[in-house]
Specification:
Blueprint lengths: L41 H4 L2 H31 L4 H21 L7 H22 L2 H21 L5 H19 L20
Helix pairs in contact: 3-4, 3-5, 4-5, 4-6, 5-6
């Protein structure tokens, strides 16, 4: 015989969730940063005798360079034929001057002043591009090179026009080794990890 159904006991009530005010929240404890490695002190690892020996050898090498190397270098410089360099410079600079002389007629600017400006802009843009790597300086250097090649091509004699333009391009590319150093056509990609917890 089954027992009569007993009244079911009420289930314990679930306490209400208490919310914590933002001012009372405690952030989780920060993990301590790993200890930094000690800097390498190479001077402490070199014996004092070796440092003194290097100093003596360096002093002797400096004396030999000042006494023998520099006079030999000056003597070698004076016995070299630098006509190729002056001819190359004239092949580029003379047509530029001729072009400016022909195309500054009627302007308040003289051909000589335009030639000085051409030289100054080239030197300044080369130096600024080399030392600062600024985009504006590099763009100025590029425009200076393109306009120089155009002027050399236009003002050179017809028979020597290709060679003169090629020498102007070579002169500009040699300068670009310094002006455009570090320039890369490879795109730079920056990856930001948004899932990394803030420290």
């Amino acid at each position: 015989m089954s027992e009569p159904d007993k009244p079911r006991e009420p289930e314990p009530a679930v306490p209400p969730l208490d919310t914590i005010d933002d001012s009372q929240r405690v952030p989780p404890p920060r993990r301590p940063a790993p200890p930094r490695p000690q800097p390498i002190n190479a001077a402490a690892d070199i014996p004092p005798g070796a440092i003194a020996a290097f100093g003596v050898v360096g002093l002797v090498a400096l004396v030999l360079v000042l006494k023998w190397g520099i006079p030999k270098g000056i003597d070698w410089y004076h016995h070299q034929d630098w006509a190729w360099f002056t001819q190359w410079t004239a092949t580029v600079a003379d047509p530029v001057h001729a072009y400016l002389s022909a195309h500054t007629v009627g302007l308040p600017l003289t051909a000589t002043s335009a030639f000085v400006i051409w030289q100054g802009v080239g030197i300044a843009s080369l130096a600024l591009s080399w030392f600062t790597g600024a985009v504006g300086a590099r763009l100025t250097w590029t425009a200076h090179g393109a306009s120089s090649v155009f002027m050399v091509w236009d003002a050179s004699p017809a028979a020597g026009r290709p060679v003169a333009a090629a020498l102007a391009v070579l002169a500009w590319t040699i300068g670009s080794l310094f002006a455009l150093r570090g320039l890369s056509l490879r795109p730079r990609i920056n990856i930001h990890n948004h899932n990394h917890p803030a420290r």
